[in-house]
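Researcher: We're reviewing a set of sequences before deciding which ones to prioritize for further study. For each one, I'd like a predicted 3D structure that I can look through quickly. This is Aspartate--tRNA ligase. If possible, include the structure in token form so it fits the rest of the review sheet.
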Amino acid sequence: MIHTTSRVLVSDLREHLGQTVSVSGWVNTLRLQSRMQFVVVRDHTGMVQVTHKRSGEGDEVEAALEQLTSESAVRITGRVVENPIVKLGGLELVPESVEILNRAETPLPIDEHTGLEHRLDWRFLDVRRRPQAQLLFAVQTTFEQGMREYAYAQGCTEMHTPKLMGTASESGAEVFELGYFDRSAYLAQSPQFFKQMAIAAGIDRVFEIGPVFRAEPSFTSRHATEFTGVDVELAWINDVEDVMAFEERMLTHAITKVAEVHGDAIRETFGVEVVVPTTPFPRITMAEAQKVLRAKGWDPEGIKEDVDPEGERGIASYVKEETGHEWVFITHYPTSIRPFYHMRPADNPGLTLSFDLLWKGLEVTTGAQREHRYDVLLKQAAEKGMSTEPMQDYLNCFRYGCPPHGGLGMGLGRVLMVLLGLDSLREATFLFRGPNRLTP
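Model: Here's the predicted structure for Aspartate--tRNA ligase, in token form for your review sheet.
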């Protein structure tokens, strides 16, 4: 079929008043009355009402509209007419031809009352039917664009590191093992070692947005077995403060962009005000954080050197009260709960030059200055009882002039969750992967 009229998006219809245009989209709702037929058609930019007066036998438009079902894909060609009574932008489309591109089966498997888990089974319909979900991915795109803009302006090179590894990374825990020809391979739980190899390769500042895999049997609202990580590694740093400063500026730049482009839509759709943070973000050491929490009666069993999610929320509310800030870096984690490659301060080897970044009480980032001296790395690995043999390729990077460096890993979904006030990471991910979900 030859189309003389090219597609016009619903959001652009006002520019075509009085003209004949084609609108392509999905049937949102139908009201087929005895004299009139009303169909609301939705595309990714909005909705328009199609209004047709029945004229009886031989009316092809009437017959086609009669066959429509909710969520059918259609192309409707008609005249754009102003009608102030119509709630959808005061416009309607008077159809001249109706093409059913793909008629949706009925009834639909989900509706507006369907629970989250069942909606995830039909995620394509769920995203298509809900403006919140459409907006989420637009916000994600703008947020990533903002981070990339900042990273590029700071001289970062965007890298793509392997997701298949010959040995289990870091501690060997929480990795997925898979068959690889005649041997085993593992899915990368972090691009950490590869980022550091890029630093050793003379690439000054490294940036990556890519998949991360964690074999954690966690069923919380903030865990996933596959998620999108935002990773940065910076060479020739003076100390870990350089890494924190880079991150807070990158986030501020990206959130400013989101506020400019989507602030009104986010307020309208999610009821959330996008607040651009001021820099620097507050910092508190782990020791101070524990002191503050214990003074407030926080005393979970078995937690001596870390804070649990309840503690993280407690610290966030304390910092908000003290400073008015929604973000806080917790710094100087004990060596016992940090990887062997985190640098330790010379005057206090029981601590690491590391941090977590919390936003409204949710941990969104982990970062640190890395240990770049080969002999120290070997010593720290031995202290943790680790065999260095499987890591020899990684350790070789530090034998031939590796500069001081540090970096961070951020969970993109967690940031979107807090940004839009969502209850679960499942909502902030297109196709969620968890211990009980490998489909669709």
